[in-house]
């Protein structure tokens, strides 16, 4: 059983987490609250449907870490530094970059379910760096 630090998140697990996080409903809930245990319980339950066994604390910790890393890379880029980068920057930029969420949802056309790209990438290495 994973402890607080837990086992490393695989690339597929992080992609699944970001996919759920990119849900407009989840984003709105997260923006409006600090006490977000209930939201992360929903996130964990949705990950469970993909066979990903993470509890709400692990989801919240990963979310916070990704958000923090994203912000530090973003501010480094804005100050002209290109030395900082991260693996899921583009995905997070679509969520956090507030390149107006309307644009992001329009490119999602009518919201019809398409097979998420991370479900096909089963052969990818298990753990991130």
TrEMBL record:
<dbReference type="InterPro" id="IPR044822">
    <property type="entry name" value="Myb_DNA-bind_4"/>
</dbReference>
<feature type="domain" description="Myb/SANT-like DNA-binding">
    <location>
        <begin position="7"/>
        <end position="95"/>
    </location>
</feature>
<feature type="compositionally biased region" description="Basic and acidic residues">
    <location>
        <begin position="105"/>
        <end position="129"/>
    </location>
</feature>
<feature type="region of interest" description="Disordered">
    <location>
        <begin position="100"/>
        <end position="129"/>
    </location>
</feature>
<dbReference type="Pfam" id="PF13837">
    <property type="entry name" value="Myb_DNA-bind_4"/>
</dbReference>
<protein>
    <submittedName>
        <fullName>ZSC29 protein</fullName>
    </submittedName>
</protein>
């Amino acid at each position: 059983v994973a402890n607080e630090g837990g086992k490393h998140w695989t690339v597929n697990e992080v992609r699944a987490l970001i996919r759920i996080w990119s849900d407009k409903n989840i984003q709105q809930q997260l923006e409006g609250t600090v006490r977000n245990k209930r939201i992360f319980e929903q996130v964990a339950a949705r990950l469970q449907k993909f066979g990903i066994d993470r509890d709400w604390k692990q989801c919240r910790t990963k979310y916070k870490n990704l958000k923090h890393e994203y912000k530090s890379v973003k501010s480094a880029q804005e100050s002209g530094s290109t030395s900082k980068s991260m693996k899921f920057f583009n995905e997070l930029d679509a969520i956090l970059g507030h390149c107006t969420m309307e644009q992001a949802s329009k490119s999602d056309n009518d919201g019809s379910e398409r097979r998420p790209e991370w479900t096909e990438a089963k052969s990818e290495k298990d753990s991130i760096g």
